[in-house]
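To: structure desk
From: M.T.
Subject: fold request, one chain
Message: Could you run this one when you get a chance? Sequence is below, nothing fancy, just the single chain.
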Amino acid sequence: MKIFRLLIVVPALMLSACGTSMHLYPVQGPISTQNPATIYAGRVGLTEASFTSPSGETCESGLHAISPGQPASDLANSWDAIYGPGYYVAHVLGATQGHFMAKFTCSGGTVFDWEASAIGEYAYQGAAKDSVGNVYKVSIP
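Reply: Done. Structure tokens follow.
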């Protein structure tokens, strides 16, 4: 159990030293058809994250670690839409380290369900879905 905690905490600590950048790229829904693309930019720290929409809406949330094998939200279809069929079950559901979830509340009333999972020592990828029906690819370098 101690090793499991280290596998979750160490990557999170690396991310949190001063926070690191995060981007949300729309891939499905009404916002994904805009040209130029609407990209949300933000920061991720040890216990919280935030981002701002291009229109200025600010969104904030605490981060919550997810235990291996535990579905965190209903984002499985979003993961598969972004990364390919079966990706969620094969790569996310059984993640043994660095899997986080959040529910962002934005200043304009929009709500985002968000998940990110480690794909390397300092890199995370994820999926998000807003209350308006848009799906986003999450990238944390």
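Reply (cont.): Residues 2-140 form one domain. Let me know if you need anything else for the meeting.
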